[in-house]
Amino acid sequence: MNNGTGKTSRSWPVLVVVVCAQMLIWLDTSVLNVAVTTLADPAEGLGATPAELEWVASAYTLVFAGALFAGGALADRFGPRTTLLAGLALFGAASGAGAFASDPTGLIMARAVMGAGSALLMPATLSVIVRSTPQEKRTRAIAIWSSSSGLGVAVGPVVGGALLSTFWWGSVFLVNVPIVALCLAGVAAVVPELKAPGRGRLDLPGMALSVLGLGGVVYGIIELGNGQTWYGPHVLLPLLLGGALLAAFVAGQRRSPAPSLDPRLFRQRGFTAGSVVLLIAFMALAGHLFYAAFYLQGPRGLSPADAGTVMVAAAIGIVLGSQAAPAMSRRLTARWTVAAGILATAATYLAYAWLDGRTPIWFIAALLWIQGFGMGLIGTPVTAVMMSGVPPGLAGAGSAVNSVTRQVGGTLGVAMAGSILSGVYRARMSDAELPGAGRALSPAAQEQARASAEAARSLAGSLRLPELAATADRAFLHAMSAATVAIAALALVGFVVSVVGLRTPAPRPGDVPGREARDEQVESA
């Protein structure tokens, strides 16, 4: 029951339901990583090409990130409960369709619709927590919400592996349907109506500009990560067009009486600095995990399942770090808790510059655990600082910004790490004397070996040239060292932003200057 103040006496049942809905997003993402090899198999899967597999993942990311601002605006206009129900229904229907897709194109389309459902889900879940949880319990609730990502990432590979060993590839998508059904029943039963009174009509032009602008920027980043040069038309045109549309979106929001994203949110130093810190933190994390996966399955020689098991250490660290963050914030303030988390992650990133093919697995798992714990210390306090000064009527928009920074940061991180890894590897292999060059390796084979370490190892196996695989591993480790130094430097930029931008404690809602005036403007819009 809503008590009229936006809080509810059923805050814990509400929290359980929305965290389960949020975890769906992360569970599905990590499950897909396990299914990629099966989807490429023409007998067991769909016979998807590498390009099609890239778009199975990218279609979801593109729509998800592009529609997040629109999802936040819909949550503010119609209430997060309604948006949550709609997002769950859309996600579940698309999951069922994807499970029975007859070709890669059908699966790509289903994944795009799942991205739209996730764009409705993510801002709504955080908006419900912010608006239904009492102030004194909010940081703990946000910590639990943040840790759902780690839990989803940890459970996903286990669930995916069990399903693929027993059922057909579509089961990794079909499993979402009963979970969605349970979440729908839970939302209908316990989540209160939290519609902001007096909200005006939807800003449809603004929503369209945000979707097209974010979509263009994310598409350009994806193309960059797929190996395109930064100055190629496939990268520059969508980036420039997307940037121009986003600029038009921001200009229009400043004049709109009912903006989808109120630019006044960024007048708060904590909100702006928190957004930058999250962007950088998730950019560094995603970039690091990108090359870490290749390292474990390449020079360390682990199977995909074993590599996934090792990387669960990072997910466990995220869960524990998120739970420890509230207590640390009370002792050290949010500013120094976040700074400590960033320094911990930067140290683990930099440590990868000294890893080789003989580094003990327990040491790698320890690095991943520390890295995850550091990320847990970052996400919860930053989110609490960002959302503490957001008026209730704009909670969806504030949640959307929080979600966009995570998604865009992750996409940027993969593009950055992939570009450095590919460029340095090719340069190193071009300078190397390839074993068997000339007589044993044709020019085409030499080009294949220089394309990627995975291609070189495959070629070495077929030609029985173990020295070629060793050369590729050395080139990869050199490239990984370059990438990890860049990622660590990026994390240190986040450290500076956190120390400078988060130097005041998170304000209580009643202490935010102009808060009452903003609420009146929201309710009279």
Structure description:
Mean pLDDT is 76; it is low at 1-9 and 505-525. The two termini are 27 Å apart. This protein has 525 residues and is mainly alpha-helical. Helices cover 78% and strands 0% of the residues.
Total strands: the figure is 0
> What is the residue-averaged pLDDT?
76
Helix-strand string: HHHHHHHHHHHHHHHHHH
Distance between the termini: 27 Å
Based on CA atoms alone, the radius of gyration comes out at 23 Å
Largest sheet features: none
Low-confidence stretches: 1-9, 505-525
Task: Figure out the total of helices.
Answer: 18
Beta percentage is: under 5%
Overall form: globular
Structural class: mainly alpha
Quaternary class: single chain
Fraction of helical residues: over 70%
Short characterization:
With 525 residues, the protein is an all-alpha fold. The protein has helices at 11-40, 50-66, 68-78, 80-99, 104-132, 135-166, 171-174, 176-190, 204-225, 233-255, 269-297, 304-351, 361-388, 395-431, 443-451, 453-463, 466-501, 515-524.
In terms of topology, how is this protein built?
Layout: H1 11-40, H2 50-66, H3 68-78, H4 80-99, H5 104-132, H6 135-166, H7 171-174, H8 176-190, H9 204-225, H10 233-255, H11 269-297, H12 304-351, H13 361-388, H14 395-431, H15 443-451, H16 453-463, H17 466-501, H18 515-524
Helix pairs in contact: 1-5, 1-6, 1-8, 2-5, 2-9, 2-14, 3-4, 3-5, 3-9, 3-14, 4-5, 4-8, 5-6, 5-14, 6-12, 6-13, 9-10, 9-14, 11-12, 11-13, 11-14, 11-17, 12-13, 12-17, 14-17, 15-16, 16-17
